[in-house]
Amino acid sequence: MEFGEWISIGYLISACLFILGLKKLGHPRTAPSGNKLGSMGMLVAVLTTVTDMYLEGGAEWTLIISGILVGSTIGYIMAVKVEMTGMPELVALFNGFGGAASALVALSESWKYIENPELSLPTGLGLEVLMIAAGLSALVGWMTLTGSILAMYKLKGGVEIFGKWFRTPTWGPSYLNYIKILLIGLVIVLIYLSISDPRNEDILYSIIAVSSILGIILVLPIGGADMPVVVSLLNSLSGIAAAFTGFIIGNSVLIVAGSLVGASGLILTFIMCKAMNRTLPDVLFKSFGGSEKVSLTRTKVGSDAEEVAMMVDGAQKVIIVPGYGMAVSQCQHQVKEFADLLQDRFDTEVKYAIHPVAGRMPGHMNVLLAEANIPYDQLIDMEDINSEFPECDMAVVIGANDTCNPAARTGEGPLAGMPIIDADKARTVVIIKRSLSVGYAGVDNDLFYEDKTMMLFGDGKKMMNELNAAIKEL
Amino acid sequence: MTPELLIGSVTLFILSIFLGFELITKVPSMLHTPLMSGANAISGISVVGALYGANVAFEGGSTSLSGLLAFLAIVLAMINVIGGFAVTNRMLNMIAGKNKKKED
Lengths: 474, 104
What we know:
The complex is a heterodimer of chains A (about 475) and B (about 100).
Chain A: H1 9-25, H2 31-55, H3 61-81, H4 87-115, H5 125-156, E1 158-161, E2 164-167, H6 175-196, H7 201-219, H8 227-249, H9 252-275, H10 280-285, H11 305-312, E3 317-322, H12 324-329, H13 332-346, E4 349-354, H14 364-371, E5 379-381, H15 382-385, E6 394-398, E7 428-433, E8 453-457, H16 460-473
Parallel strand pairs in A: 3-4, 3-6, 4-5, 6-7, 7-8
Antiparallel strand pairs in A: 1-2
Helix pairs in contact in A: 1-2, 1-9, 4-5, 4-8, 5-6, 5-7, 5-8, 6-7, 8-9, 11-16, 13-16
Chain B: H1 3-23, H2 32-42, H3 47-53, H4 65-103
Helix pairs in contact in B: 2-4, 3-4
């Protein structure tokens, strides 16, 4: 037996590294080493492939090396340059690229037979496996690409074209669900047709077009706050696309790594849904965000920064509750300044209450606050900090709404059963928010109207700056 | 493609899916995004398929369209891989790095 026949052992090593890496990524202590194991697995896989090609009769290096160099450089620059606030969008974009790469490999394999009529197609089972795997890889891959790009713009909130800002639309009448099913059926028919006519370009183009449309109408009806769940689902899909690509070229590491990511991504999607008290079908097929919202009948008089600054003076314990609004206005540094002022001037104890789904992505608050150099031990998970609110003098809610809406405790409405931060149990509550408008779930928040609540109406960054200035003047 | 080979591949596929379900059980919420991003980087494994596809020669100064498609696939997959691992590393350094300092 020659050395070349043993080369596939490299893929086994790589698959083991991926498994260990994913496992370790799930625990805080081991997560950094898990990420390193995963990247080592990728290195082993690439080296194995290149060695295999070399031993198989010489590799053509021009395209290979330049592709690796160009891709690595772009990826590295994007990852290093991105602001941590824009990180969820970047993850969504990378995910789309992963899906597109799988779909392109499938397309490249199919195209080989179209541009070389003398190249003989596999027969029988081989042909069926090739066309079905290529079709499914294209379906999932192109869908992941268009869906991820739309998700990225939804996370951004809009797109700027020629200096004009367009909000990313959210649109989803219920008949759209039937169209989705219809389009998936159409792709299956097209794949079936491609088996009997493998060199037909039109079928290929149709599959690409229909799959791309599917990705868009899958993400279009979903409201901004559900976007993390969708990105996680798309991540799972991009893994599945890689696994299907593995069937095309008959490569074990693609099948193993792809299906691992597909399955663990799906589990992560369910975990995220659970934290928001939603189910995946609800997120995907019932677009309840952004459509009908309760019209407000109550009003509340806003307070000003000086008033709040006076209340802060003398508070012994303050808990800050950050939310989506803090991420949008990127005011984490102002929040840190606020906390420092309280600690220095009034010797106040400051903690942060982190709701599992606060922000645009789970863990988003941790990353943002860590970026502002806030000590990790001050960030407390919801379950642990809720018991501290009754003895807390002031809860400062920055751009959070649904995650501290007492309506969730009533057991009625869209928020029913969602775990919330008990900010309403603090002695006074300060809420920094642009208006009284309802949150993503479309439920009015009783907390805003309580006597002990002071509303600071305005953008998070602006209000935090005013508040900090007011404290300095005291 | 023989039936044995196909069954072998399908076995690998199904067992890996089960393994993937078991790997992730309880994940603290602060790790959801890094985990997603790290797993996403691993899905860039399609670079292996792209490498095989791009292993074509230039003939008369140009190459086949299928080769160019595979080249594009390498670029996108490598962006996914390198960018994904790098951004995950950055996130974890921010989350877990602070954790370590505290323990020291």
